[in-house]
Design goal:
Elements (H helix, E strand, L loop, with lengths): L1 E5 L9 H15 L3 E6 L5 E2 L8 H11 L5 H19 L4 E5 L8 H8 L5 E5 L20 H4 L5 E5 L2 H11 L3 E3 L6 H5 L3 H9 L8 E4 L9 H11 L7 E4 L9 H15 L6 E3 L13 H10 L2 E4 L8 H8 L4 E4 L2 H6 L3 E4 L5 H12 L2 H13 L1 H16 L2
Parallel strand pairs: 1-2, 1-4, 2-3, 4-5, 5-6, 6-7, 8-9, 8-11, 9-10, 11-12, 12-13
Helix pairs in contact: 1-16, 3-4, 9-14, 15-16
Length: 395
């Protein structure tokens, strides 16, 4: 699909709307759409009069704030913009105007887009007519009516349900909400290499992600982790359990142990649920670096340490620093190292581990983290954006 995104300015100009515009352009481009960003400044197809700070546009804006309508200036800008935009929008199947139709910064642009004859979405971050800060622009008559009356054929979309309700009350037209998003990998410091590891392991869409930062040795009791994952799976169908370490370096038995774990995974039908990162190494070195481990801790919703014994228990400290709940056996050394732990009996079984994992996942900050990721990560928002554009384009 050919999509035109329009705003006064574009990234790298800093700002909330610009950030959303840039994210939409990137997401749609990654999903195979032909995206053109049109703006007055920034990395875009530039039309100077689109910029809210263009001298003529700003002069008109300031005059409108004094209830002074320079009709000749308005008409000149609108006609010029219409002529400049026509070839740029000619092959667009849908046009998305960010914050243009409900704010007073460039009303000639709003008029030109409304009359362009293209399916148009008014992506609404703010509404001047309900904001007391814009009281000076809250007048009757044209061109103020562009912000106060729903424009024919325009689909109004808001960044929140509250904004959508305000559109419906002010413009008396149906509106829908598609939320803003965040890049959770960037915010939490999950690097591209760590994300690629999760993708190669087939667990990049995990929710929740249980991290087991251990080597493959029998005293780590990884079989407990697999059995607990099987118990959790019916209630957590997108669960993934990732064991990060290589085979232990000091015992020939570790290869047999690894083989038994892979057999257990198959028997429990946990392929695609339990990932051993040593499998990604092939004949090469273990693919997980120290930097990757830091990122994987940040990606984890819960950290699990099912060991039957530990000399210290460094993962307890590492989990604490990234604020991931720690589930571990009730060992004296782990009580010595850690404080806020979800413990299961040292001699307990898989059901005990699963119970402790459920308690960790029920922590409020874990539930909120999962909700934000599920509802507001750009990877979750993108399909909604794409579906809306397709609906408007083919209406």
């Amino acid at each position: 699909m050919k999509v035109a995104l329009v705003h006064y300015t574009a990234p790298p100009v800093a700002g909330g709307v610009e950030a959303v515009l840039g994210a939409h352009a990137r997401l749609l481009g990654e999903r195979g759409h032909d995206v053109r960003v049109i703006a007055g400044r920034g990395d875009a197809t530039l039309v100077p009069e689109v910029d809210s700070r263009h001298p003529d546009v700003e002069r008109l804006y300031l005059g409108l704030g004094r209830a002074e309508f320079d009709e000749a200036l308005f008409n000149g800008l609108r006609n010029h913009l219409a002529a400049e935009l026509a070839p740029l929008l000619a092959d667009s199947e849908v046009v998305v105007a960010h914050n243009v139709l409900t704010m007073p910064f460039n009303l000639p642009l709003a008029a030109a887009l409304s009359a362009a004859g293209k399916p148009l979405i008014a992506w609404t971050h703010d509404l001047a007519f309900i904001n007391p800060r814009y009281r000076d622009w809250q007048h009757s008559g044209f061109p103020y009516s562009l912000m106060r009356i729903a424009q024919p054929g325009v689909r109004y979309v808001a960044v929140s349900r509250e904004r959508a309700t305000e559109i419906e009350q002010l413009l008396e037209v149906a509106a829908e909400a598609v939320p803003n998003g965040i890049d959770s990998d960037q915010l939490t410091g999950i690097g591209a290499h760590a994300r690629a590891l999760l993708e190669r392991a087939g667990v990049s869409a995990a929710d929740p992600l249980v991290l087991v930062p251990l080597r493959i040795t029998r005293r780590k009791r990884l079989e407990l982790a697999l059995a607990a994952a099987a118990e959790l799976l019916p209630s957590e169908p997108r669960l993934a359990l990732v064991v990060t370490g290589p085979l232990g370096a000091h015992s020939a038995d570790n290869r047999d142990y690894a083989a038994s774990l892979l057999e257990q995974r198959a028997q429990l039908a946990l392929d695609g649920v339990v990932a051993f990162l040593f499998e990604l190494a092939g004949e090469g070195p273990h693919p997980v670096s120290d930097q990757d481990m830091t990122a994987l801790y940040r990606a984890a919703d819960v950290v699990l340490l099912p060991s039957e014994s530990e000399g210290f228990g460094l993962p307890v400290l590492e989990a604490a620093l990234v604020r991931a709940p720690m589930v571990c056996a009730d060992l004296p050394v782990l009580r010595e190292v850690g404080r806020s732990l979800h413990l299961f009996p040292a001699a307990g079984g898989a059901s005990d581990v699963a119970t402790a994992l459920r308690a960790a996942l029920a922590e409020p900050h874990v539930a909120e983290r999962r909700r934000v990721r599920a509802e507001h990560d750009w990877r979750a928002v993108a399909p909604r954006l794409e579906a809306l554009l397709a609906e408007v384009a083919h209406a």
